[in-house]
Design goal:
Strand content: 5-15%
Structural class: alpha+beta
Distance between the termini: 46 Å
Shape: flat
Largest sheet: 4 strands, mixed
Helix content: 25-40%
Number of helices: 6
Radius of gyration: 27 Å
Order of helices and strands: HHHHEEEHEH
Oligomer: single chain
Strand order of the largest sheet: 3-2-1-4
Number of strands: 4
């Protein structure tokens, strides 16, 4: 019973992704094992099997994963002497959306309102930056997402620090973060862009905010 309940059903020729008690009981009955639902619940539990939802996972294909990850983590562990470590990301577009409430209404006739507002000026993107070692969070709204807005936001961050300091922005691999214009601005502005590995956004501490 345990050996059947442990692997996925579709690995045993059954067109299911997980067992329910009813399905597992029917499958065992077809094989000549007739047990009650309580027994079927008790025996796998005693064997260390419990009902769990399937979880997804993603592994980074980046061949330089270890090198990039260690670079980011080392900046977190030991603050550079010559400047701040700042995690950067964008979120959006942000736009006003009405939210449904509740109240008394006749049966079958709920109150209604518009599904969305008019947006003649479009939405906005929230650019965020988190100074890891000073524990400081800043944000700016921008009308669009692109290399020009990235450069402007990096410049805004640079204005908050002494110009003699070197800034270490940790930013993901979004294409507009790494255009020639962004790289050229960084090389001329005493900024070292730090990329985390592909599919490793959890290493960017701005994600928690």
């Amino acid at each position: 019973m345990v050996s059947i309940a442990r692997p996925r059903p579709d690995s045993q020729g059954v067109a299911l992704t997980r067992w329910s008690l009813a399905k597992l009981r029917d499958h065992l009955a077809d094989g000549g094992i007739d047990v009650s639902a309580e027994t079927l619940r008790r025996i796998p539990n005693e064997a260390g099997l419990s009902h769990r939802r399937t979880r997804s996972w993603k592994w980074s294909p980046d061949p330089d994963f270890a090198t990039k990850a260690e670079r980011v983590l080392s900046l977190y562990r030991e603050p550079p002497e010559d400047g701040p470590v700042v995690c950067i990301d964008e979120m959006g577009p942000n736009q006003p959306i009405p939210h449904r409430g509740s109240g008394r209404a006749p049966v079958g006739q709920p109150g209604r309102h518009r599904a969305s507002f008019k947006r003649p000026h479009g939405g906005r993107y929230l650019y965020r930056a988190y100074d890891v070692h000073d524990d400081r969070l800043i944000g700016r709204l921008r009308p669009r997402k692109g290399e020009l807005e990235v450069v402007r936001f990096l410049h805004t961050i640079g204005m908050r620090y002494d110009p003699r300091l070197r800034i270490y922005p940790v930013q993901d691999n979004l294409s507009c973060h790494w255009t020639p214009k962004v790289r050229d601005w960084a090389s001329l502005s005493n900024v070292e862009l730090v990329p985390p590995p592909t599919y490793a956004s959890h290493l960017n501490r701005i994600e928690a905010h």
